[in-house]
Amino acid sequence: MAYTAPVDDIVHALTRIASFDRLVATGAFGDVDLATLRAILDESARFSNEQLEPLCKAGDRTPARLEAGKVTTSPGWKDAYVKWARGGWGALTGSHDFGGQGLPLSLAMAAQEMWNGASVAFCLGPTLTAGAIEAIAAHGSEDLKALYLPRLISGEWMGTMNLTEPGAGSDVGALRTRAERRDDGTYRLFGSKIFITYGEHDLTNNIAHLVLARLPDAPAGTRGISLFLVPKYLVNPDGSLGARNDVVCAGLEHKLGIHGSPTCTMVYGEREGAVGWLIGEENRGLAAMFTMMNNARLAVGIQGVGIAEAATQTALLYARDRRQGRAPGATGQGMSPIIEHPDVTRMLLTGRALTVASRALCVLTAEAIDLSHALKGDDAARWAERAALLTPLAKAFSTDCGFDVASLGVQVHGGMGYIEETGAAQYLRDARITQIYEGTNGIQAIDLVSRKLPQSGGATLAALLDEARAIARDVAVEPDLSIAGRRIDGATEDAARAAAWFAALGRDPGDAQAVAVPFLRLLSLALAGAHVMKGALAARHHRDPDAGRHLAIARFLAEHLLDETASLAVRVTEGAAIVAVARDGLE
Ligand SMILES: Cc1cc2nc3c(=O)[nH]c(=O)nc-3n(C[C@H](O)[C@H](O)[C@H](O)COP(=O)(O)OP(=O)(O)OC[C@H]3O[C@@H](n4cnc5c(N)ncnc54)[C@H](O)[C@@H]3O)c2cc1C
User: Fold this and answer.
1) What does the DSSP 8-state code read for residue 50?
2) How far is CA 148 from the centre of its chain?
3) CB proximity list for 347: less than 8 A, separation 6 or greater
4) Which of 127, 130, 88, 105 shows the shortest CA–CA distance to 32?
5) Which of 139, 364, 365, 465 gives 20 to 30 Å between its CA and that of 452?
6) Is 312 within 8 Å of 353 (Cβ atoms)?
7) Per residue in 117-155, pLDDT tens?
């Protein structure tokens, strides 16, 4: 197992693929500049390499455990968390009013990629806390903000998100947890939640649970859900801790991966009811959650990038060291390092290219979110729509890449990949959940084709495709890149043709859903292929020292992987009807 945070590659993505300069120029992020970006990312890399990377295996081997209602995290977890909080890492994007640094999300996500690459199970806790901070900041009362935000932003306390119940997973509207009003303005909650990440642990002395529940007179379905803040310990007005609230962890899940992350069954209101405070308005809980959905989904996409990077690095190291057979054209004596076998080279290049592609989609999404906050009026709305369209791509494509690249990593290791010692298998196990939580990748694809493609009459997508076409034109005039230029252009037209199929009048929603997943992959490949090449070309024009490396990967992505878009386009435009017809085959 080997992971060294790839600072240079991340800075390349932020500056040559996205435009960090444009973010800085908005003036919305204080005096942050490229030097600050580099300094923060260097420090984050040091923290990831030294403090978090050792946790990865420790958490896998010695999972969090539950004894007498208390969860003890894996060895080294608490020490690392204290250092993480003291380092101010939870405060990057928080508001200045509550102790945050007000930095762009793009920068925070870049740091998060490193923490995830080092230990995705550790990083989940801070990721969920960031979601809680965002929901409270956007919808909480002034009292709740004053009491909770400084402590969550400083890392003194952590936060959780409680949506899922046994009968309510993807269908959140089916949830049954009950909330009752009390005369003092508080609520009492009764019910059970399952799969709650970091629902209980020993890292902080209080936990702010954000819980979705239903009031007795609430309308059915998603329009009758409210959001509540339920602390593990009640909080006195001065911030000191009061009595234990009526919420307990009733069990920990035994999982395929992310063993270091405690996944809890939480029981609210076994006695008098768990005391909760409303966030936002009654029955508007889902809307409150949705305001933070883009960031949360992007954060999971970033987990995919981090795992893909770590799996590729680990496989590369092994492939340089392991010797078997003689590679074509080998000159020296004895067996060749397996990296010299063209098939192994192909696997490693595929891993690197998919990592870079998913990172590109994530930085473009983060940039769009930042600009939607930094700008005003129509500009802000345009960037918000772009962020909304890119988010399912960033989440689903990147997590699919995380898993696929981890699987390639196992393959590069041969039999040793299947043995736990090398760590290759852990990346595969850890990656699998990222395709499921925070909205399964199937649900992301349906969101893309049903809600995001029609935005502004298709104008959001049209603008993205036009940018990809322009990149293809710029690439095609470079003598060594003409094939890549053609492939990028072809992929863009495949995406345009498939998108037009969805837009056809009277398209049956069942047909559209049947081919949403292949469309999401097609569009992701087309956009990522274009923007990775754009970044590499920019590096060449700026004579960046590592321009050659970026161009090699961009070319491999375009010339070796983008051809997949042609068959995906056929699957989308001609393969929908058979899904319903062939259902008989499942009988
Ligand atoms: C390790 C772990 C950590 C988690 N952490 C949290 C957490 O912190 N907080 C929290 O609230 N939840 C958490 N979850 C829950 C997670 O978000 C859900 O598991 C996920 O949303 C899927 O719900 P489900 O498991 O009920 O699957 P289901 O909803 O039953 O889905 C099963 C399959 O059916 C498909 N499907 C379902 N509905 C549709 C539809 N309408 N259209 C098309 N396909 C559909 C899905 O895509 C999936 O393939 C966690 C889960 C795990 C395993």
Assistant:
1) I
2) 25
3) 315, 408, 411, 412
4) 105
5) 139
6) no
7) 999 999 999 999 999 999 999 999 999 999 999 999 999
What are φ and ψ of residue 124, in 5° steps? -60, -40
pLDDT tens digits for 228-286? 999 999 999 999 999 999 999 999 999 999 999 999 999 999 999 999 999 999 999 99
Backbone angles phi, psi at 99, to 5 degrees: 95, 5
DSSP letters for 384-430: HHHHHHHHHHHHHHHHHHHHHHHHHHHHHHTHHHHSGGGSHHHHHHH
* Long-range contact set of residues 417-423: C-beta below 8 Å, sequence gap at least 24: 422/1, 422/314, 422/318, 423/1, 423/2, 423/56, 423/57, 423/314
Residue 104: name the closest of 300, 306, 371, 289 by CA.
371
Q: Is 559 a catalytic site residue?
A: no
Whether residue 229 contacts residue 214, with contact meaning beta carbons closer than 8 Å, is answered with no
- Tell me the angle at which helices 516-541 and 377-413 cross, rounded to the nearest 10 degrees: 100
Is 73's C-beta closer than 6 angstroms to any atom of ligand 1? no
d(CA 462, CA 453): 9
d(CA 383, CA 403): 29
How many C-beta atoms surround the C-beta of residue 26 within 10 A?
A: 15
**What is the length of the chain?**
587
Cβ 524 under 6 angstroms from ligand 1? no
Q: Tell me how far the alpha carbon of residue 437 lies from the centroid of ligand 1, in angstroms.
A: 6
Which CA distances in Å does 146 have to 95, 136, 143, 239, 307?
Answer: 12, 10, 5, 9, 36
